[in-house]
Write a structure and sequence with these properties.
Blueprint: H1 5-24, H2 36-54, E1 89-102, E2 106-121, E3 124-140, E4 143-157, E5 164-180, E6 183-200, E7 206-220, E8 223-235, E9 238-243, E10 246-251, E11 257-259
Length: 260
């Protein structure tokens, strides 16, 4: 298993650009309040964070991994690697140190570690337990970023080929971006607790049901928020987000949010 950092870095660059777009929509500083502008700004940031973190954009495991080890994790020589006939037991690497450069424009370093425990039925993998802590630090033209992901997942296959699977657990997804023109910064930190997510792999990993709670803290343009709320996954790559008696529909393919 080799690290797919070449594929991951465009995701990282897209994350920073998307938060830059969010920040540019608000020119006036916002305080930590519950006014409509602050709530709308927070909902947009949380929606993007949810959509991006679920697919590993901040460096962690992705729902698109199914019941397999994440392609964003490097398999060191001391790490057991799943094969077609043996896919059971512990797979651990606590010394990730991965560096990738794209010319002089985009640079990233990924550090941390992960521990899988693969569950089998006979010789067939039917799920895993995962604990990871991943930090990605990088820079591109006009910006720098620090992303931290901590995941504690329990994933189990629900059919014979594991194309449908459940996910339970927690994820902390923190994204901090700094921009030079103009000088500004954004910060979005969200911790999710997922309960009974049902993922349909054959439909582009659509989450057809399940619930979550979240606690978020963020800042844009000198102001910020601290909100908690709930998520209900609806299928068709949509989720309902509720906090402060405001309800939004989140597009899980783009992260876009609309009042519901």
């Amino acid at each position: 298993m080799k690290l797919n950092l070449r594929a991951a870095l465009p995701l990282l660059m897209g994350v920073a650009i998307s938060y830059s777009a969010c920040k540019k929509t608000e020119n006036k500083p916002q305080s930590t309040t519950t006014d409509n502008a602050a709530v709308s700004q927070a909902s947009a940031a949380i929606g993007k964070n949810l959509a991006q973190s679920l697919v590993g954009a901040f460096g962690g495991a992705s729902i698109k991994d199914g019941v397999n080890p994440s392609t964003t994790f490097k398999a060191a020589s001391k790490t057991k690697v799943q094969s077609t006939d043996v896919g059971c037991g512990f797979y651990t690497d606590n010394s990730l140190n991965l560096v990738w450069n794209q010319g002089d424009t985009l640079k990233a370093t990924k550090t941390g570690g992960y521990s899988y425990y693969f569950v089998c039925n006979g010789a067939a993998t039917i799920g895993y337990n995962l604990v990871d802590s991943i930090k990605t630090v990088g820079s591109g033209p006009g910006y720098s970023f620090v992303y931290n992901t901590v995941q504690k997942y329990t994933v189990r296959g629900l059919n014979t080929n594991n194309s449908n699977f459940s996910l339970n657990g927690t994820m902390q997804a923190n994204a901090d971006n700094n921009y030079t023109k103009p000088v500004s910064a954004t910060s979005v930190h969200v911790t999710y607790t997922f309960t009974n997510l049902y993922v349909h792999g054959d439909d582009n990993f659509d989450i057809t049901s399940g619930n979550a709670t979240f606690v978020s803290k963020g800042s844009f343009n000198g102001g910020g928020w601290e909100y908690s709320g709930t998520l209900r996954f609806l299928g068709n790559h949509k989720a309902q987000m509720v906090f402060l008696n405001h309800e939004y529909l989140v597009d899980l393919t783009t992260g876009a949010t609309t009042p519901n």
